[in-house]
Automatic annotation (TrEMBL):
Alphabetized GO MF terms: acyl-CoA oxidase activity; FAD binding; fatty acid binding; flavin adenine dinucleotide binding
Keywords: FAD, Fatty acid metabolism, Flavoprotein, Lipid metabolism, Oxidoreductase, Peroxisome, Transit peptide
InterPro entries assigned to the protein according to its UniProt record, in alphabetical order: ACOX_C_alpha1 (IPR055060), Acyl-CoA_Oxase/DH_mid-dom (IPR006091), Acyl-CoA_Oxase/DH_mid-dom_sf (IPR046373), Acyl-CoA_oxidase (IPR012258), Acyl-CoA_oxidase_C (IPR002655), AcylCo_DH-like_C (IPR036250), AcylCoA_DH/oxidase_NM_dom_sf (IPR009100)
Name the UniProt record assigns to this protein: Acyl-coenzyme A oxidase
Length: 686
């Protein structure tokens, strides 16, 4: 009894405190009672963005690359024979992709390799436009220019540029990037192909020592490639032993087909990797080498060289540093995939949103049917996706600019930043886009399933973005490892990479952030304040980082570092995602603040609020577990997400128009600006 009375008293006191807190919060937000009672009316919301002008927003998004993209669109509009049809065989698709690439370069005057070397931001924008034509085309071109071309210019030295750059640009020298093997994909250091130096003839001898060392999935290999950058273990004769010394993985230029008659060269065997789930315009092949001799000059020798007498030299002190530098130079492909994935997301959300605002099903009794986009469920599927498209676009744009800066300066801190940022953004964006493609298909009902409406092809073609240029799960671990390294080494006052700076401040204050007033505040003003949003994202990351470090230390003592890492893997992946979301939000906030046009800025701010609050809502469990958000605040966040979806729905037409994808490129009849049903019917001959 006694204890019952005591707990009743405690309950009453707690209720009193809560009442006081509610009054405080209400008056702070200017409300009489609950924060939710200030719900804006439908009329107020639709009025709010009525002045939004598509061209202003589009100009802000496209920046200085609008003209470059429009040139690509115009080229394909003028060449309808080069558009990829809906139904096409593997053989025809491969030939068409090659023809499209040749036409762009030889007729359209595009110079992708020059752009990659001199103006990477423009290169990625041009490739975004090319991806809207056909993802097979952009990947085929990515293999030729980012991978084959990029490996030659970034891992080679001037003599390689002089010899190959022009031929790569003009497609006289189509080539491959042969890193992956049958037995080794993510673990590049495990590749088995060998390049043994023969001092007498000053040549490297390339061999596939076993079946598992077969180069696999190599783009451009099955049909069109004449050269390959082959990643192989460099073997040098040893003075001390009769066994060659293994100097680790290096890159070599290996001719695979004759320049004259395109026949496969002696010692090289090529097979077709066959029909794939998507991207069938790209000719992926498998390669084996039997005593293929190449001149000493064919070693791409920027980070390690072999003198005629077999002496090894390198500007870098260790094999691990050389390996890191080599892979570091290859991040360009990853940057391109992050950027290209945003483009796919923009196209898919454009189709789904346009169709959803035209499609009508059901309505109030006796009244006209309503657009499916007016259903709250449809808004909750598509509006956060639209907000994410914008969020990712600004983050990927930042990444591209950082990458360009890295290429200009070769600054070590920027190199490290771009490496982790590209890994994180590539993994996060491609995973989100892959899921969204299925959501879009479903949101468009049965008509979303018609191949002509493109979700199927986009989904199949994009799916592998999760795996190539680094498997997403592996990449996120690199982000987590980098965060932990910075946590360990530099929190005591050393310099942090600029993208990481927020963490030091957050780590210092994160334990003091759960004060009872802040955790209960639920007014729209507070929830839509970027300071609250950024603090919440960063608090989560800082907490995850701190606890990951503690757990790793605890488990390492008993299990060793490899097993301890595995024990904490899920935690580490969540940490990496959380950090990347913090970076994305910060870039979104910076971007809308930069926008000069007031209506466009206000629309972007609304999208950013939706992006932030929806992500907090999706992770509400972790905020509740830490008592960062009280139950009443969690409810207010959920309600705010619904309201923001409603608000964004009102301007969603303008928001997708601002992506500036012409109907002739989007092609899906249900995603056209006007006349969707008529165009759709005409596709089946009516
Ligand atoms: C269409 C296509 C085109 C390609 N083009 C090229 C090309 O032109 N040149 C080229 O060299 N390669 C190319 N690749 C190969 C591609 O880069 C590899 O597929 C990729 O690196 C992943 O390697 P993997 O397939 O061996 O997967 P694996 O490394 O075997 O991964 C399989 C699974 O294991 C998991 N896993 C692996 N390691 C870990 C770990 N440490 N922790 C947790 N989970 C882990 C992964 O998350 C994944 O789910 C291409 C592949 C495809 C399908």
């Amino acid at each position: 009894m006694e204890s019952g009375r005591a707990s009743a008293g405690a309950m009453e006191a707690a209720l009193n405190r809560l009442q006081k807190l509610a009054l405080h919060l209400g008056s702070e937000a200017g409300f009489e009672s609950s924060p939710l009672s200030a719900e804006p009316t439908a009329a107020r919301l639709s009025e709010k963005h009525s002045q939004l002008r598509v061209e202003k927003l589009q100009a802000f998004l496209a920046g200085s690359y609008k003209v470059d993209k429009e040139r690509i669109y115009a080229f394909f509009q003028n060449h309808p024979e080069l558009q990829t049809p809906v139904e096409i065989s593997k053989v025809e698709h491969r030939e068409l992709a090659y023809k499209q690439m040749k036409a762009l370069v030889q007729e359209g005057g595009l110079k992708p390799l020059t752009l990659l070397m001199t103006d990477p931001a423009k290169y990625y924008n041009v490739f975004e436009a090319i991806g809207t034509v056909d993802l097979s085309l952009s990947i085929k071109m990515g293999v030729q220019y980012s991978l084959w071309g990029g490996s030659v210019v970034n891992l080679g030295t001037q003599k390689h540029k002089d010899k190959y750059a022009v031929a790569i640009e003009t497609l006289e020298a189509p080539g491959c990037f042969a890193m992956t093997e049958l037995h080794h994909g993510s673990n590049v250091q495990g590749v088995q192909t060998t390049a043994t130096y023969d001092i007498a003839r000053q040549e490297f001898v390339i061999n596939t020592p076993n079946e598992g060392a077969t180069k696999w999935w190599i783009g451009n290999a099955a049909c069109h490639g004449k050269f390959a950058t082959v990643f192989a273990r460099l073997k040098l004769p040893s003075a001390k032993s009769h066994i060659d010394e293994d100097m680790g993985v290096h890159a070599f230029i290996v001719p695979i087909r004759s320049l004259e008659d395109h026949k496969v060269l002696p010692g090289v065997e090529i097979r077709d990797c066959g029909y794939k789930v998507g991207l069938n315009g790209v000719d992926n092949g498998a390669l084996r080498f039997r005593n293929v001799r190449i001149p000493r000059e064919n070693l791409l020798n920027r980070f390690g060289d072999v003198a005629p007498d077999g002496t090894y030299s390198s500007p870098l002190p260790s094999a691990s540093k050389r390996f890191a530098a080599t892979l570091g130079e290859l991040v360009g492909g990853r940057v391109g995939l992050a950027y290209g994935s945003v483009a796919v997301l923009k196209a898919a959300s454009t189709i789904a949103i346009r169709y959803s605002s035209v499609r009508q099903q059901f309505g109030p009794p006796g009244e006209p049917e309503i657009a499916i986009l007016d259903y709250q469920s449809q808004q909750l599927k598509l509006m956060p996706m639209l907000a994410s498209s914008y969020a990712f676009y600004f983050a990927a744009d930042y990444l591209v600019k950082r990458y360009a800066e890295m290429k200009m300066t070769h600054d070590e801190a920027i190199v490290a930043d771009v490496h982790a940022l590209s890994a994180g953004l590539k993994a996060h964006i491609t995973a989100y886009t892959a899921k969204s493609l299925s959501v879009c298909r479903e949101a468009c009902g049965g008509h979303g399933y018609a191949a002509v409406n493109r979700f199927g092809a986009l989904r199949n073609d994009h799916d592998i973005f999760l795996t190539f240029e680094g498997d997403n799960t592996v990449l996120l671990q690199q982000v987590a490892a980098d965060l932990l390294k910075q946590y360990k080494e530099k929190f005591s006052g050393g310099a942090l990479a600029v993208t990481w700076l927020y963490l030091r401040q957050q780590m210092a204050t994160y334990t003091s952030q759960t004060n009872p007033v802040a955790t209960h505040r639920g007014s729209a003003e507070h929830l839509r304040d970027p300071t609250f949003q950024l603090n919440a994202f960063r608090y989560r990351t800082a907490t995850l980082l701190h606890t990951a470090a503690l757990r790793l230390r605890k488990h390492s003592a008993r299990l060793g570092s490899f097993q301890a890492w595995n024990r904490c893997l899920n935690h580490l992946l969540t940490l990496a995602e959380s950090h990347i979301e913090s970076v994305i939000l910060a870039k979104f906030v910076e971007s809308y603040k930069r926008c000069q046009d007031p209506e466009a800025r206000s629309a972007l701010k609304t999208l950013c609020d939706l992006y932030a609050l929806e992500r907090i809502w999706k992770n509400i469990g972790s905020f509740r577990n830490e008592d960062y958000v009280a139950p009443s605040k969690a409810k207010a966040i959920q309600r705010q997400v619904e309201l923001l979806c409603y608000e964004v729905r009102g301007m969603s037409g303008q928001l997708v128009d601002a992506f500036g994808i012409p109907d002739s490129m989007l092609r899906a009849p249900i995603g056209l600006k006007t006349g969707q049903y008529a165009e759709y019917s005409s596709m089946i001959g009516w």
